[in-house]
From TrEMBL:
Residue stretches making up the 3-hydroxyacyl-CoA dehydrogenase C-terminal domain: 476-568, 604-687
Protein name: Fatty acid oxidation complex subunit alpha
A Pfam family: 3HCDH_N
Pathway: Lipid metabolism; fatty acid beta-oxidation
GO biological-process terms attached to the record: fatty acid beta-oxidation
Family recorded in the similarity comment: Belongs to the enoyl-CoA hydratase/isomerase family. In the N-terminal section; belongs to the enoyl-CoA hydratase/isomerase family.
Assigned keywords, A-Z: Fatty acid metabolism, Isomerase, Lipid degradation, Lipid metabolism, Lyase, Multifunctional enzyme, NAD, Oxidoreductase, Peroxisome
Span of domain 3-hydroxyacyl-CoA dehydrogenase NAD binding: 295-471
Chief location of this protein within or outside the cell: other
InterPro entries from the UniProt entry: 3-OHacyl-CoA_DH_NAD-bd (IPR006176), 3HC_DH_C (IPR006108), 6-PGluconate_DH-like_C_sf (IPR008927), ClpP/crotonase-like_dom_sf (IPR029045), Enoyl-CoA_hyd/isom_CS (IPR018376), Enoyl-CoA_hydra/iso (IPR001753), NAD(P)-bd_dom_sf (IPR036291)
Species in which this protein is naturally found: Paraburkholderia caffeinitolerans
Alphabetized SUPFAM superfamilies for the sequence: 6-phosphogluconate dehydrogenase C-terminal domain-like, ClpP/crotonase, NAD(P)-binding Rossmann-fold domains
Amino acid sequence: MAVDYTTRDGVAVITLNNPPVNGLGHSTRAGIVEGLARANSDPAVSAIVITGAGKAFSGGADITEFNTPKATQEPTLHTVIKEVEKSAKPIIAAIHGVAMGGGLELALGAHYRIAAPGAQIALPEVKLGILPGAGGTQRLPRAIGLEAALNMIVTGTPVLSEKLANAGLFDAMAQGDLLDEAIAFARQAAGKPGPHPLVRNRKIEHANAEGFLQFSRNTVAAMSKNYPAPLKCVDAIAAGVKQGFDKGLAFERECFVELVQTPESQALRHAFFGERAASKIPDVPSSTPTRAIQQVAVIGAGTMGGGITMNFLNAGVPVTLLETKQEALDRGLATIRKNYEAQVKKGKLTAEKLEARMALIRPTLTYDDLKQADLIIEAVFEELGVKEQVFTRLDEVAKAGAILASNTSTLDVDKIAAFTKRPQDVVGLHFFSPANVMKLLEVVRGKETAKDVLATVMQVAKKIRKTAVVSGVCDGFIGNRMIEQYIRQALYMLEEGALPAQVDRAIEKFGFAMGPFRMSDLAGNDIGWAIRKRRYQETPEIKYSKVADRLCEQGRFGQKTGAGWYDYKAGERNALPSKLVDEMIVAYSKEVGVQRRKISDEEIVERLVYALVNEGAMILEEGIASKASDIDMVYLTGYGFPLWRGGPMLYADAAGLYNVARAIRRYAQQPNGDAWQIASSVAELAESGGTFN
Ligand code: 3HC
Ligand code: NAI
């Protein structure tokens, strides 16, 4: 049963009971209507309380029903709210935990609202690419005023109930037991003569509503490029202000129906579920026991070790930080402090918190201090020999059951695990740089990694607010293995006729945060060079354009050397097209006998994105990633893929695998076409009309 019905002291209590968040799916909606009818026809009942079981009042409409017949099957949320408003007996919404989206809209339909402190109140629909579709854009401005409501609606940000205590939304704040107080309130309300008040009948008071809405429209338009929903929210609010409640409601409905079909909304919903799905590992059930992680140790206080340490300090977890030399340790600590100081300067952190976080670090030069650590993360130089030294030592000192993790970006986690006598306790934790900022964490599952180790690190990831995605062991794991094919295409296109600025511009227009050449200049062109040199030895059959090697031979490693694919003015990060590099590229084409041609932006985007898709497909076929949405999450959270496109695999689904396959086969016929070996799943889905997601 999605809804429970009980009575107490002459008050009917309708309890939404649809775990985990009392989503307003069809059966819940039907249950509410049934409960209302029963309460209204029962002479022993004088008032009605609607509340939620468990941790939430309601998280809103059931997103899994969107674009399915159930979403529009009566009773819709509109019908439910109409029934609430029509009720002759007063209805009190008793809110705790979460009242979001349709949940808040349902409460806004009630005659009265009582809230427990600490409840998260929001209309977060914009985050899913839609707008509140059950009267939220009409009732919230009438409840808390135009400006406050508009802010909540266009940002979707939750506000704590106590902050809204005097805003006009709640008739009372619960001091003790919410249900007891709601029932007492209901009994009192029943004693008052009807009709009971409705939010829809309130006026929107504003000295200059028109001017404010115009200003908001301009601001929102500038801030929500590529996302249609926020502007529609403003339009729907404006419709209600100008044309009254009913017309505003009808317009809101139209906008909802339109937005829910947009690719942007599909992408945002895909990301919402993709993030939650990523934490579920097919053969590691949620009941898998986890190991307690109270103390963490990090080895290496360099770029990554420092950032990784900060994640745990931010979550209040003490970290023992180990280095080989005092000097390196001091440098690492100073960088961490400097990063926090920058946050203090921006007003994002208080000086006390800075000190409290620094106090959680226990710097050390001796492995004996790692004996108590429950989780040890290694971030030392990227050399197998150094990793061997570290893991051999860890095997000697770490306590039984401690999780031993490596932040390696290219080395074989199984080989690292084999340096210990406890490979089941070894796992890869591939953080991205800067590790204290980037959301993505690739969890690399070795062939012997124990299930409880995986379950534990996924839990740890949540605690430090990372989006964790599990990858099998392979060169580059999910993200870097795919980016290599993308970079390979980018380099070939230079050889064939494009220049760095054109490639970057085309893919940035597509929506990437940064094109491949600006990105390489930022990360350091020497990193890719080192990888290619290794490939030339290990896999000589895989061809690469040598144009990037030429750049590196000139010492142009990127921003850190003041020159890369672009020129940089001293102390500045602006990428300025470089005449020298452009001439070098043209000369290189001549040298390798390629007749340069004009490459369209469309070709640039297709070759870059489909290179990701094709490699992603192989990663899925090999079981390196367990689902397509995991690959999308890697690209959305770690590589700046445009969120409104939902990730490479969803993008390929939307483009149609038939079209993707045709393009890949076409590019395979062009010069440098040997880089394109169509993935068998791409070919199969093109045949069957199927999709990855
Ligand atoms: N519909 C369906 N499932 C939902 C849901 C919803 N509205 N909200 C959350 N869930 C599911 C999640 O997918 C997850 O499922 P899983 O356990 O199977 O992975 C589970 O509930 C728990 O979610 P979280 O892990 O996010 O739990 P938290 O406790 O961290 O957060 C929350 C709870 C704050 C409610 C968060 O889930 C959230 O922000 N949900 C989205 C709320 C939202 O956007 N509501 C608006 C819906 S659209 C709408 O109402 C349209 C209306 O205007 C007509
Ligand atoms: P770094 O050179 O900035 O830091 C390495 C630190 O390890 C140095 O401070 C060094 O003194 C210390 N160190 C070396 N040997 C040690 C030992 N035996 N015991 C203790 N400390 C030791 O390197 P960075 O960039 O932080 O990389 C570290 C690891 O993280 C590498 O495996 C790298 O592949 C990986 N990584 C790096 C990323 C990046 O963007 N820099 C991204 C993701 C992973």
